[in-house]
Amino acid sequence: MAPAADATPTTLHFATCPLCEAACGIAVTRRGGSITDIRGDADDPASRGHICPKAVALKDLHEDPDRLRHPVKRVGGEWIEISWREAIDLTVQGIRGVQARHGRDALAVYIGNPTVHSLGAMLFAPAFSKSLGTKNRYSATSVDQLPHHLAALFTFGHPLLIPVPDLDRTDCWIIFGANPAVSNGSLMTAPDVVTRLKAIRARGGEVIVVDPRRTETADLASAHHFIRPGTDALALMAMLNVIFAEGLVKLGGVADFTDGLEALQQACAPFSPERLSSATGLSAETIRTLARTLATTERAVAYGRIGVSTQEFGALSCWLINALNIVTGHLDVPGGAMFTLPAVDLLVGGGMYGGSGRFGRWKSRVRGLPEFAGELPVAALAEEMDTPGEGQIRGLVTHAGNPVLSTPNGVRVDRALAGLEFYAAIDFYINASTRHAHVILPPTAGLERDHYDLVFHSLAIRNTAKWSSAVMDATPGARHDWQLLSELTMRLARGGPLKLAKAWGVAMLVKLLGVRGMMKRALAGSRYGAQVSFDALQRAPHGVDLGPLTGVLPLRLRTENKRIALAPERMLADVPRLEALLSRPASGADELLLIGRRDLRSNNSWMANSERLARGTRRCALLMHPDDAEPRGLVDGAMVRVESRVGTIDVALDITDAMMPGVVCLPHGWGHDREGVRLRTARAHGGASHNDLTDDQRVDALSGNAAFCGTAVRVRAVAG
Fold first, then answer.
1. Which numeric CATH code is attached to 146-342+558-577?
2. Distant-in-sequence, close-in-space partners of 141: CB < 8 Å, separation ≥ 6
3. Where along the chain do its domains lie?
4. CATH code for 585-717?
5. pTM (2 decimals)?
6. Per-residue pLDDT tens over the stretch 561-616
7. What is the bridge-based pairing of β-strands 223-225 and 258-259?
């Protein structure tokens, strides 16, 4: 007798992929409690049907047997499932206990990158952090993007006033230290970057990449130029020098509200291309050509990302890229660097990061690194945990964070986490960091939550708005992250100092309204009116197209005088440190400079537990130029030992002329094979952690951002 046919109906759901900044539209086919298909939504106005392999792997994340669906506590080496009541009680007791014994600053919080992709967490994580009453607040912001926010704050008056390339109308895109063909864009919501990049060239335009590696983006570009890691600020200064020296300055429409042109000219005067050629690895003629091309192309834009922001001069580099776009007339015009007009405006009322002046109000205890937007640089986290004395961190809460694999000197972070008196994690994995937790509270996963991309609609290359209702049912009794955060906040704030009353009030409001109610309130005040009301967005499952970017200055400026600060005092004060780089002693003869790279099938330190993403050739390998391999007696495919000041790893070697001589490259987000990690696929393809080599003492002195780029390493064959 033939088995009965499955009568469960198949339904189609449209949503936004909640994994990266591209925010691609997805079409999810569901039968009962199972996902049968995930593909790109062809009718999404931004992504137009494009998705990457990670979006398809959302099915694996939803179904992952290693994903926690109930709270657990650690007893010895075992994890025991507990009730939500017990988990909340243990967390509150642990936090209060640490603070009662050692003071409020003995408790720290770390907010990881996935938080920004969760609407509920974005709405509520700030109030939760404040409810802890500690100055030891950290996030992934200071892993790779703080310099961009600082440059925006000093120049335009708000950390989120980050201009994005108008890719669909530009005729020249100069890229410093970014690989958008793989990252899908970063601090730039630009789904299907590859198609957009090809379109630039198809209409006769140029794409020029300046990077120590010939990246996947460089392979698609018009030209690629190697640059020595950590010297981008020198090259950018030299380009400005050429633009001023050759009379190529053209402020255009921003001239009437821009200050500091003369000060900028004076600052870049000592940085001639000829003087900087040797330090950067770029010929003087190449620097001049880059400057002239940017200045003389009617629609052009310069852009930089992780390679420029994760170095010792990250803030200067981000500022100088903005300055280049301004002085060449490419700010706030079609085809240049433009600002969004999002439906939910994070700049209104101070926005997510607050307004001007929120920098350097206090410093870290051990090294004196500056605060930004209420957070300290994460490069200080390990030393604040393992350095004895008053104010030492004795307890920690992490939300969707994996600092062992994501922050510098991961070995030190690992040891410090193991020594904490109390550690609570809001996470659905037992990973390299959370394995040290005493209690883990797992929230729902991406497809089980309603979603609206608060941040990335604010960084998009086209104005759009899209609401996504939850696609899949959560496990019965499961809690969303905002529910966990609000409950913890109310418990921690109740009976505390008066200043915590506001956090308690926000928690109560969120609890009463829920995420949908909060979004209704936010959209009700939108500049687009009924077009983007909550009801209207619910009736538009593919999203709403609000049109191309338009000129918005000076109205969008948030500086006190409503003018662009082309030469901010804090940036100018850091220029002598940059000039001193030219007299820094050369690296040792056997030293190489380490840079990182992203991978299309991984997502920082997570998504590694998907078997479909783990397939294929080895991806955690060290890239090295043949000229560096030959004198060291190294052969392709061999295991090599890589050593820095702080650590040593063994990893496979790939020899390739895609690397600049003197530079090696290793992807970040690997190293999952540590004892106690409960991720079967990730452990089987563990790889080596890039951050076991990066140095927590190397930071951008101005911003405090970790300086991952350009770590000095030695490489040799593994004996035997």
1. 3.40.228.10
2. 149, 372, 373, 375
3. 10-63, 72-143+355-521, 146-342+558-577, 585-717
4. 2.40.40.20
5. 0.96
6. 999 999 999 999 999 999 999 998 877 789 999 999 999 888 889 899 999 999 87
7. unpaired
